[in-house]
Amino acid sequence: MSRKLNTDLLIILIAVPILWFAPSGLKSYGLYVVSLWLVMSIAAMGLNLTLGYAGLTSLAQGAFLGIGAYATAILTVKAGWPLPAAFLVSTGLSFLVGVVLGFPALRVKHHYLAFVTLAFSVVVFLVARNEQWLTGGVYGLANIPRPVLFGTDLGGGLAFYRTVLVVTLALTLVMWWLLHSPWGRAFQALRENPLRAASLGVDIRAYTLLAFAIGSAFGGAAGSLYAPLVEFIDPAPFALSASFVLLLTVVAGGAGSFFGPFVGAFFSYMLPELLRATGGWYLIIYAAVVLVLVMVSPTGLLGLIDRWRDHQSQRRAAAIRAAARPTLASADKPTLENQGAAP
Amino acid sequence: MDQFLQLIVAGLATGAIYALAAIGFTLVWQTSQTINFAQGEFVMLPAILVLTAAHLGLPMGVAFIVGSVAFVLLFGFGFKRFLVEPMQRHGVLPLAIATMALSVLIKEAAKNGFSAEAQPFPSLVPDGSVSVLGAAVSVRDIAIFVVAIAAILGLQAFITHTRTGRTMQATAQNPTVARILGVPVERMILLTFLINAALALIASYLISPVYLAKFSNGETIGLAAFIAAIVGGFNQIRGALAGGFLIGLIDNLAAAYVSSAYRTAVPLVVLVVVILVKPEGLLGRKEERTV
To answer: In Å, how far are A326, A327, A339 from A332, measured between CA atoms?
Structure first.
């Protein structure tokens, strides 16, 4: 376990400088795509906590993305707040709404919970579309400002990307710390066997609510970065299908694996942008690929890699056994196999 | 009062459509623990297939047959054989997620392969209205209601009065025991998938003349079908039937008396209340939790 934990940190340590410098040559569209990838990774990371670690099926992450994005847009555009303050408030708000949504999770599990959260998603979407005085309705909210920190303008494509990267790094470390704290263990106990967890003294109520709330807070944080990234928001990107795609993202990457969300988000948000050249067909290709992936490996892409690695080590072991066999066999009498092997 | 009566009839008509979709949903859940998130797309698609066949130059009657057969083969047999069967051993959730991907796939394929715009669909019933107790009631609504009820009663008769139907019930209630008693369980499960496809087909042909054939129709219908199935009772056909009518009525009455902007939200509130107060549904049986 402890070796695994160090590998996670090592990967972060190697990845961050690469991600800091590598996109510097990209044009604004390229920077937008990599920024989107990071933002969606944050949202997926939150859902991965709720679904992958705590085992609570939520179809509301798209709604939390929307709550974060709208809260940030309203606070910055209408109230004139600076972005960092709006970010904190949006994240906090999502946390609180997450606690409230967590209450149904105390009563129902699995598909029932999926349906409750699905209902919540639809309601959030309806509010965003209908409450024009607050959200701008279908016309949306425009001119969402990008951040200025201590007099430095972070609004340029690259500067904003790096801001997003720093926030992503911070949230990734928070998540890492969380998962390796006793809380993280408790979340997993919740997923594996709630009754046993309860009998061992884990406060199921508190941890279920927390798993939901923290996952939602990550969704809100992602939304709060999404709003200045796209600079214009309307209800469409936060419809129910957004929650479906986020769930597929987590599962495609590998639910319950630490870097799964990043792999999944690459797959769900960057790949479609690369496939945009295919016209309207990219979503079809995407859905078909996810369908095949889920069928081939329900543990996601990282699960596929794990399986491949297992397979490789098995083959290696088999090769070692095969290499050892002639020496063992030669002590006895020559067999067909080592006759064939020796020239 | 006139308006109220019209709303009730319209509500019963939409409710009958929801009930068709919800019953199929429940059947498939009972026999194979499949939560089909693509159920709405199943109701959207047959009409699109028929129109596609018609666009290819087939006469309308033939197009209906071609579309129906293609749909039942693909999403009755094919769905069971190539998606549900291989996924089943992984459990309920991965299978549900696979159906989510399938729903995106069907929707996008219909949008790109057919049309992004709503297309008119031929109605089998003439337009018009008759006067019932002084209120003008749409003939189409009555026809939808009658056809859907006939289909549901036929299904109910099949399930309770034929040998095959009762074996199907046995499979749904306890597959292990059914298998021991010599029931061809796999064939029975396949049968429920075929029935599900047939119900979706009927719902599609009934509703498409009213709402036009459009790739995004499945979202509303699918949502209503889930809600109907859960509110009524996930494990009961009569539950799904009652749930369908209840949601259809609530939907239409809410649009008129609460707020047309939030008409979708009202059934959702009902759903959440039912799940929190009586998760097994209004007519459902309790499923025990195992340690």
So the answer is: 10, 9, 13
- A95-150 pLDDT per residue, tens: 999 999 888 777 776 777 888 888 899 999 999 998 888 888 888 888 888 877 76
Assess if residue B183 is contained within a domain: yes
d(Cα A49, Cα A183) in Å, to the nearest integer?
11
Would you say residue B258 lies in a domain?
yes
**Angstrom distance (rounded) from CA A179 to CA A187:** 8
Query: Could you tell me the CATH number of the domain that includes residue A241?
Result: 1.10.3470
Alpha-carbon torsion (B68, B74, B79, B80), positive or negative: positive
Q: Which residues in chain B (229-258) have CB-CB distances under 8 A to chain A?
A: 230
Tally of domains in chain B: 1
Total domains, chain A = 1
Q: Is B228 on the interface with A (CB under 8 A)?
A: no
Nearest CA in chain B to A295: B87
Residue A337 maps to a domain: no
Which residue range is the domain that position A136 belongs to?
A: 15-296
Question: Nearest residue on chain A to B107, judged by CA atoms?
Answer: A284
Tell me: ipTM over 0.85: no
Nearest alpha-carbon partner for A42 in A213, A165, A187, A191: A165
**Which residues have C-beta within 8 Å of that of residue A81, sequence separation ≥ 6?**
A75, A89
Which CATH number fits the domain that encloses residue B177?
1.10.3470
Q: Contact B227/B247 with Cβ under 8 angstroms?
A: yes
Chain A to chain B Cβ contacts (< 8 Å): 105
